[in-house]
Design a protein that fits this description.
This protein is α/β, with parallel strands linked by helices. The chain has a single domain, classed as Rossmann fold, CATH 3.40.50.2020. The chain is built from nine helices and seven strands. The strands form two sheets. It has a five-stranded parallel beta sheet. Strand 6, helix 9 and strand 7 form a beta-alpha-beta unit. Helix 4 packs across helix 6. Bound molecules: zinc ion. The site of zinc ion has 9 residues, from helix 2.
Length: 266
């Protein structure tokens, strides 16, 4: 029974229209107080979730030719299936990786906003970039799995940006999405400022497949999703855990990747 005021209209309808009005008014008020800003240039834009027109020119989208394994862009045309020197010398655990953009000042600002400043309104735009970059990897049968955060970090940040992206890419591509398959067994200090070898040690054995998701992972084509690929240590550690659990293939899809001297080193 309703305890609210008696009305000649259904209570839900009355509350719904009033709450819609309140919500629209609040939204206009919030827009006026905090106008939507471009995450790259910080200038005002017409709506949340978009970037300013000239910010596009600051981003460096990655296109072929790239290393067949890690997706590092090559500076000149090479044959199909060619791998970079880093992958030949020290192959990553994942089968291949692709990134949407080069990690630089522009994409750094975008990713920091997305990760740390509650700019989840950027998810649809970034998911489109990922779907484009991963068009050769993300098949309808693939299982998208986000790189996991440790629960303490998830609690502090309130959302896992990789899980938001995975879900949105799955919706765009028809791939499957499983946010809970991988778990981070221990908190790891941020990889920033660590040498490649220290990064590898930092995340070695840090991930495992949850026992209740093992059957889902066994024999599956997995596409790991993360925001940035620097040395590939985190994604390699995740891939190792997934393959140990019987994954048939593990690829990686990231928003941005570090490139050194025009060609990335894995
Ligand atoms: Zn490579």
């Amino acid at each position: 029974m309703e305890d609210g005021p008696i009305s000649d209209r259904p209570a839900g309808a009355a509350l719904g229209s009033r709450s819609n009005l309140v919500s629209a008014s609040m939204s206009r008020l919030l827009d006026a107080l905090t106008p939507p800003l471009c995450p790259i240039t910080n200038e005002r834009v017409s709506a949340p979730g978009i970037i300013a027109a000239h910010a596009w020119a600051k981003l460096r989208f990655i296109d072929d030719p790239v290393c067949a394994r890690c997706g590092a862009p090559f500076s000149h045309e090479v044959g199909k299936g060619v791998e970079c020197a880093g992958c030949i010398a020290d192959p990553p655990e994942f089968d291949s990786a692709r990134a949407a953009v080069i990690y630089d000042d522009a994409s750094h600002g975008l990713i920091v906003s997305f990760k740390h400043a509650d700019r989840t309104d950027l998810t649809p735009l970034l998911a489109q970039w990922l779907a484009r970059a991963g068009s050769g990897l993300v098949t309808p049968g693939a299982l998208l799995i986000p790189a996991p955060l440790h629960p303490a970090r998830l609690f502090a940040r309130r959302y896992n940006q990789a899980a938001l992206l995975s879900r949105a890419v799955a919706a765009l591509t028809g791939a499957r999405f499983e946010p809970m398959a991988l778990t981070r067994l221990r908190p790891t200090p941020p990889q920033k400022n660590l040498s490649p070898e220290a990064r590898r040690r930092n995340v070695a054995g840090a991930f495992a497949v949850r026992a209740d998701k093992a059957a889902l992972v066994a024999g599956a084509h997995i596409v790991l999703v993360d925001d940035v690929l620097t040395t590939g240590a985190t994604l390699s550690s995740c891939a190792r855990a997934l393959k140990k659990a019987g994954a048939a293939r593990v690829d990686a899809l990231v928003l941005a990747r570090v490139v050194r001297g025009g060609t990335a080193l894995a």
